[in-house]
Every structure is written in structure tokens, then in C-alpha cells.
Amino acid sequence: MAFSRFSPDATPAARIGLGLAAVGRPGYINLGRAGDLPAERTVGALRERSHQLLDAAHAAGVRYLDAARSYGRAEEFLAGWLADRPGVRDVVVGSKWGYTYTAEWRTDAATHEVKDHSAATFDRQYAESTALLGDRLDLYQIHSVTPDSPALRDPAVLERLAALRAAGLDVGLSTSGPAQAEAIRAALELRYENGPLFRTVQSTFNVLEPSAGDALAEAHAAGLTVIVKEAMANGRLAGEAAPPALREMAREHGTGPDAVAIAAVLHRPWVGIVLSGAATVPQLTGNLAAARLRLDPRELARLTELAEPAARYWAKRSALPWS
């Protein structure tokens, strides 16, 4: 299969995807997890929560689902949901390789995931992903590319990615860190036949951290679909944690700050999909309100004033505890 069959106009909510990072493992860095997840974060409890979210998302019109090898059992939960619902054939599935989950289902692990962009890790993790998702996998992405990552210059890795393209599976990359723009532009230099090697780029972009915006616009112009992650800044733009200006705007629109934060990203003409990282169905419902929210130029300009220097934003993100 291929990501190219994704249609952003399939449903009113199709430009919002569901990311499973927050519910595929017991520990993550989103704020408020103590109140979001079951008291006992067993595998069974998070499988049930994942399936509830997937059911609600599909019923609401979400059509892109995003997982990763490092999201604990997210691929397993997603594969089980798909197997239990054989009639659901209108979703597009993406996953990622490059991080290995090492926390062993603990929230207090010293290390939760280990990054390795080698060809050997690709071989192992691609086999693991396809063993679970089979032909339901539409998009396979390098996880969290930075300018110093070997993934964009290792001939063995690039050969494997080109082979996936030749076999009909689309490839993409995600980026992280204060130099996302540099990584995106380096990725655009890589070619496959007559166009870019990558079909998609998934990057952190929100009203606090907009530094990759110009590079993402260039990626869109080059034909890539832009997928935005962390539109709510790991919870910093939701509920009472949101900046006062965002909360005030949300009150004016009768929504939550999360919907305003996501809507601000959806208003960018180069954005294809914005991921919801909801951990509860009410959170998902609140996020999806962004699909019908319209912000005027004055409001959008006001939100740009919330931006932080990229280095400061990523330092704050690095300091967030796994919980």
C-alpha cells in the first residue's frame, strides 16, 4: 500500500490524525498523564484505551493513524484493532523506525528509548513492524532525524528506503530538535527517480515552536505531505497549562485551548495533517473541534506572539518528566 491514497478531503476531520505515542506505553512526557490514564496502566488497560480512541477517531472521520516501534505496544494495539474490524479499509497507517523501546513497561525507567538509525536497526524494526501490521502499513518513517543523524547519508539505509519505494511502500521522516529546518532541507536533497525520496515529513510545529515553518513550506512545495506532531507542545497548550492569550481566545470561540492551538496549525496552507496525541476520548473530541474552527488574521497574528526561541523551547521539552 502507499500513503498516496490518503485523502485530506475524505471527511471534515481527515486533516487531523491520531498519534498513539501517549497510549502505547505507560510512560510519556505529556503533561497531566496522572489524570488521563487508568490508575493501573496494564497492557490490557492501555490496549482497551487505544481501541476506544481508535473507534472514536474513526467514527469522527479521522483517517490517518500514526505509530512507531518505540511507542511501546502501539503497533500491536493498532494491529489488533484493525484485525478486529476487517471492514475498516479506509484508514491510512504510518509507523516509524529508529528508536527502540527499552522501558520494559515501566514509568520510572532510567532510559525509555534508544535511538539508532543504522541499517541493522532498520532491518530488525521493519521486520517487527510488518510482522504486526502486514500490508496495512502504508508509510514507514525514520524517527526523529536531526542534522547529525547518519540516516540521511548512510548508503545502506538509503538503499533500503529506495527499495521500499520501489516495492510500493512510501517512506518519510520525522524531525526533532532546534535544527529541524536543517534536517528537512537535507532530506529534500535526496532523490528517488524524478522526485524526492521522501513522501512525507513529520515535524514539531506549534505556536510556541514555529521555527521549522519555512522549511516545511518548502517541503510542501516539493510535493511532500507535511504531518505536524506536538501541535499542543506536549500539553503546554492544553487546559490551564495554556498561555492566558490562548485560553482567552478559546473562551471567545467556546472551545478549549487545544482546539485553538491545533486550528492555528491547520490554517497554515502547507500543512497536510495535524496529529492529535489524545489519551482520552474527551480529549480527542476537544482536539477535533479544531477542524471546524476558523481564526481570523488578527487572532493568528496574536498567536504568533507566543513563539519562543527554538533552543529555549527544546530545553523546556527535554526537562519534561516521563510520567
UniProtKB/TrEMBL annotation:
<dbReference type="InterPro" id="IPR053135">
    <property type="entry name" value="AKR2_Oxidoreductase"/>
</dbReference>
<dbReference type="Pfam" id="PF00248">
    <property type="entry name" value="Aldo_ket_red"/>
</dbReference>
<dbReference type="InterPro" id="IPR036812">
    <property type="entry name" value="NAD(P)_OxRdtase_dom_sf"/>
</dbReference>
<dbReference type="InterPro" id="IPR023210">
    <property type="entry name" value="NADP_OxRdtase_dom"/>
</dbReference>
<feature type="domain" description="NADP-dependent oxidoreductase">
    <location>
        <begin position="48"/>
        <end position="307"/>
    </location>
</feature>
<protein>
    <submittedName>
        <fullName>Oxidoreductase</fullName>
    </submittedName>
</protein>
